[in-house]
Amino acid sequence: MIGVHLIDPNPLAPREVYTPEMILNRAEDLRAQGQHDPIHVIPNPNAAGRFIICDGWTRVQACREHKVFEALLAEVHTELGLQESAWFGYEQNEGRSQHCDLDRAMFYEKLIAAGESPAEVARRAKVSKTMMSFYRAYSRLPEDVLEIIRLHPQKFGATEAYQLAKLHDKAGIRKAVSLANKYASEDQTQRWLTNQVQALLNPIAHKAKTSGKTIRYANGIYKQRGDVFELVITVSADQREAFAQGLEDLLEMAAIQPEPAEDDVSAEDTKD
Predict the structure, then answer these.
(1) Does domain 1-99 fall into CATH 3.40.50.1000?
(2) Domain ranges (residues) in the chain
(3) Fold of 100-204
(4) What's the pLDDT tens digit per position in 24-77?
(5) One-character DSSP codes across 172-223
(6) Is 61 exposed, middle or buried, given 0-12, 13-18 or 19+ CB atoms closer than 10 A?
(7) pLDDT tens digits, residue range 164-196?
(8) What is the pLDDT of residue 215?
(9) Bridge partners, residue 232, by sequence
(10) How far apart (Å, rounded) are the C-alpha atoms in residues 238 and 220?
């Protein structure tokens, strides 16, 4: 039996998310059912008589905050170092399905900071390289986004974190926070979030509508689209000359004569 106030948190703890509701529920379970299984600890190498938790931190917090038990039955693992004790707790929690993706991601980052390579962490955690890159996206998120995720840990998995990190990297914190809040408050799917990120990063340019008109005649058609004019018309023989002259007069207003080609030189220009 070890006093709950003699047990310190593990700096490499495999879990991050402990909500007040979670701790209260564990306290009520302990009061109603007692302690079925021992917690697991290692001796604290920096404080004689104290211990560091390997597994069972929720029960320790429940007893401290809600005054359930003064001491808990504990198994002391003198053979484990700090990192191995953290892996022990991780495996226990994975077996009980108590981790969320945020827990896993923060645990992996602690181990990497402590000297383990990302490849070794992925191997021990049985996570693919691709999935590890998704987990590591949490560490790229600003604190404002992480606060939203901590309030809704089950909603923001590693894929969501990866999408939000991509948005934050390329579009800034405001858009990332805004989208995270919207996703947290609405009943939307992971696909919806991915599509929203894609839309924000690659907005579709809408072409301005070009004004125009089309007039159909019995003997032809006239079209105007923006600055382009088209005319196809059949003119009777007795009107042809006058129409052609009138059309050529109009063309003088806007038609631009082509530049002569460089090799289009008259015979006069070639004389000595």
Answers:
(1) no
(2) 1-99, 100-204, 207-254
(3) Arc Repressor Mutant, subunit A (1.10.10)
(4) 999 999 999 999 899 999 999 999 999 999 999 999 999 999 999 999 999 999
(5) -HHHHHHHHHHHHHS---HHHHHHHHHHHHSPPPPPPPPPEEEEEETTEEEE
(6) buried
(7) 999 999 999 999 999 999 999 998 999 999 999
(8) 92
(9) 221
(10) 17
